[in-house]
Records
---
Amino acid sequence: MELTKQWRDHFKQLRAFDEAISLLYWDMRTQMPEQSAPLRAETIGYLSTEAFKRQTSDSFKQLLEEMEAANGLTATEKRSLQVAKTQYERNAKIPASEYQAYVTLVSEAETAWEKAKEQNDWGMFAPFLKKILTYQRKFADYFGYDAHPYDALLYDFEPGMTVAQLDDLFETLRDELVPLIRNLPGGTASLDWSMNEKAQERICHDWMRVVDYDLSRGRLDATVHPFEITINRRDVRITTKYDEADFRNALFGTMHEAGHATYEQQIDESLDELGLGGGASMGIHESQSLFFENFVGRSIAFLKSVYPNLQAEHHALQDVDFETFYAGVNEAKPSLIRIEADELTYSLHIIIRYELEKALIQGDLSVDELPAAWNKLYKEYLGVDVPSDAKGVLQDVHWAGGSFGYFPSYALGLIYAAQLTESLRAEHPDFETWIATGEFAPIKQWLATNVHRHGKTLTPNELIRTVTGEDISVRPLVRYLTSKYGTA
Ligand code: ZN
């Protein structure tokens, strides 16, 4: 069989596994009868193992070697080979028995973390975190790195990103944000954000229509924890959580997930056969959801256009002028919990986690010192006192899940989104008018051409440079936040 056909067949097979697993998972989270849970988990586990075996088998190794020796590969095939080879080598470097023990540890750690958080008891979780860190440092050594062990862990989330680059970006951003937040004006009027579920559902569908999320290749359902999931390029689904006490969660959450989904829907379909479908990185993916949620959804142009409809659905807003409503939707203030943070303070939550986990991996900070170090940084950067570990160092599942290197992607998402939005505006001064009049097709087209269709063919660094002509920079984000939240 012709070599490149064999190569493509490998990824087609993997895509079939992916589709089956994703659909089973989506069903599990949205429709499945409760009693089915253990059997479903077993099925998903079996299919995942089978898919993993195909990526690590001797026959795949041989195929890799043949591809490396082959002549006349296209640029995209070469990129496919490079991505697959790196992943293969990373998988192969961890001894199977060690990996098995690690998977078991992480699943125990997640259970321990849940209880520790519930009971506000750091001591219940600390021993697990110590063991996880030992593994993470070992994995970093197996993967290999030049300057910092954390660089080796970043690859899974943000290929090509390094500690040197992150230090530079995050220090600048931190130094700009801390004084900006300190000088925020006092609180905004408290409004009634309650709304019944049916009305929220109608508005979510309205907003999805405005931003042109393609529902002929997607759908919206309700779940406890919202997510986006790709079944295949033509079936990208999202979920949202309806909170009758505060409709902002469902509305902006839906915009967020629709941003992720639109990215997935617009990736060049042919890249799936080369293992290059999916987003360029976690951070680039997040930039697309944050573009929809913040740069469009929380903008004056968009909110003005949807406000009359919102007032008609929610009578408590009928006497509220637009300026008050806009200020309420965009209220920024330092807080304790990352997932509840606004777009202004959010990055500082991430920078704190980044500084801590980098020090943990490097060995400059011990697990026993972590809670105090956490509280100190929250005071220093956000000016808040952390009342308990449950509302502090225990709030996120990431470290229990062994996801070291993941947090930076969230702040990078904001940084990338601001850079991309500046370029889009510079090319299209009509940007605001398009949003105000609900003409979203040209915006989607710009995103497809410049960001979405490329899939994994470009790294985040390459993508940002190609689209904006500049390296990754925090300047556009600082400009955006200063003009929106600055008092001067
Ligand atoms: Zn997201």
---
Amino acid sequence: MMNIADKDVYILAIESSCDETAAAVVRNGREVLSNVIASQIDLHTLYGGVVPEIASRKHIEKINQVIEAALKESAMPLEEMTAIAVTYGPGLVGALLVGVAEAKAIAYGAGKPLVGVHHIEGHVSANFIDHPDLEPPFICLIVSGGHTHLVVVKDYGEFEILGRTRDDAAGEAFDKVARAVGLGYPGGPKIDKTAREGDPKAIRFPRAKVEGAPYDFSFSGLKSAVLNYLNHARMMGEEVSVPDLAASFQYAVVDVLVSHTVEAAKVLGYDKVAMAGGVASNSALREEMRRACKRTGLALYYPSPILCTDNGAMIGAAGYYEYQKGIRSGWDLNAVPNLKLGER
Ligand code: KG4
Ligand code: ZN
């Protein structure tokens, strides 16, 4: 007879799409037994951004150690894993390939099923880990270094895209503005911190709206406005308050992210809102979204900061739901750098 423990699903998850080499063991999609992340941030800081070739090489150096550490910390042997999940896109092709090749080798060698996971579905699924009661459907704002999407999560792994960025991603805008004012890489957390000392109403920057597309975003105009402001001040020999500039820029981004999200929930009749991706750990975004959701009677969910930025646990959560749906990848699984949301 099968006991309860036999029915548990253990996913060993691997993530290497950008600059974190990460692995995790997740039980039944929501319980994290280990979550090991080797960040390359210090290395890329030297160059002011992620250098793809260096990222791939570092992943190769680290991946075995990270996976071993994840298994060790979970106190579960590889044989006990139900399936191996891996991010296969979107991301940097060379970086993704390291994780995909590794996952295939482990799954083949251990005789386990392989489940390819969409990186953005991973970000969304981080919410399931921190909120055991959260179930679809809900509205989700996905804001990372490479992506800005407003979606309806209709079911696990089922998305309806309401809006997206027309140009830069929200995180990219943070990174570019941070670089322009000399705060360095990665810009998001640095702007977040500096903005706390500044006045968000000091400079009025344009809002990142797109005419006729109520749920789309555009951050390139805002970025140009910040650069113009800086150039103008430099030409006039005026002192720029970096905290005021950071706070005003951040407020312009947050204002649009919050208003689009709350509007979508109200118009489409959803009572739950979630956030995902690196920028979802921004303190001003969290605070403004909390305030707006409270005012409009919406329940708000977001992951703890460590689960907002890239990690293996979120891939384990998404991988679990894909596995439960019967999704299996073949040994020909390849990295898909521009994999679209909702595509398999
Ligand atoms: O989700 P993520 O780790 O990687 C991608 O899939 O892109 O997101 C990284 C992005 C970077 O652009 C980083 O600057 C931004 O998230 N970020 C933040 C904060 N923490 C990370 N942006 C604003 N405020 C933060 N506190
Ligand atoms: Zn990410």
